[in-house]
Amino acid sequence: ATTFRDYRLLEFLTGCNAMHTDLVPAQKLPFAAKHLKQLMYVMMNMPHNRPMRTASSNVLEVGFGKGSNSIFLRALKPSGVKFFGLDVLPAHVQYAKKSAANLGFDDNVEFHLGDAGNMPAAIMANTYDLIFGIESLCYLDTDNSVEGFLSFASKSLSPGGKIVIVDGFRADDFETLSADVRRAMELAESGFRIRRMASKATW
Question: Contact at 8 Å (CB) between 112 and 84?
């Protein structure tokens, strides 16, 4: 488990706290906060931006880390949207629940412990208009985990619902680069695909 200390060190060295920074709508964000660009893409697919068949909507974030993405979206006060989050680490759940409670958002933001490849009953009990993951679904590192998540999503998405996965990154000018550079980058991308994540001891 990556510790919060690791992320504070990352912020000190790079000026950008990943996993994702404690976003607050009124907070001034550094231009380097590329995660906000990722979250804006999720926001474009939020239920309140699309015609839905029901008055209320559910949104599920898979692998929420500190919970900052869902809390940020809740802070924008979309009407009739309830947020759910799932993460595999107890420390993340504890941190996110405390953050939501401190802001008075625990009325319609719920964070749960569990594995996206084998969803807990509390998450399975709902249908969702949007399921999203930012830099997290790459950790579904076995075929069974991927199949478990996709099976859940196919049953739990409402009609017209969407899955939004933000995990791959390329420069905006990728297509203008030379063929050799594009090929080198494609090989680098392949090297970063995570399958069967090794433990520290195995590594």
Answer: yes
**CB neighbour list of residue 177: distance below 8 Å, 6 or more residues apart:** 171, 185
**For position 82, what pLDDT does the model report?**
93
Rounded to whole angstroms, how far apart are CA atoms 119 and 136? 15
DSSP conformational letter for 108: T
Asked if 79 and 49 count as a contact pair (C-beta separation under 8 A), the reply is no
Q: What share of the chain is helix, strand, coil (3-state, %, to 5)?
A: 40, 20, 40
pLDDT of residue 188: 81
Tokens found for residue 25: 């709508």
Q: What is the pLDDT, as a whole number, of residue 50?
A: 53
pLDDT at 171: 73
Measuring CA to CA, which residue among 46, 15, 13, 28 is closest to residue 164? 46
pTM of the entire predicted model: 0.77
On whether the CB atoms of residues 47 and 129 are closer than 8 A, the answer is yes
- Pairing verdict, β 109-113 and 128-134: unpaired
- Token pair, residue 42, equals 């999720």
Dist. CA 94–CA 111, nearest whole Å? 9
Which DSSP string corresponds to 20-51?
T----TTS---TT-HHHHHHHHHHHT-GGGS-
- How far is it, in rounded angstroms, from Cα 174 to Cα 75? 34
Alpha-carbon gap, residue 81 to 59, rounded angstroms: 7
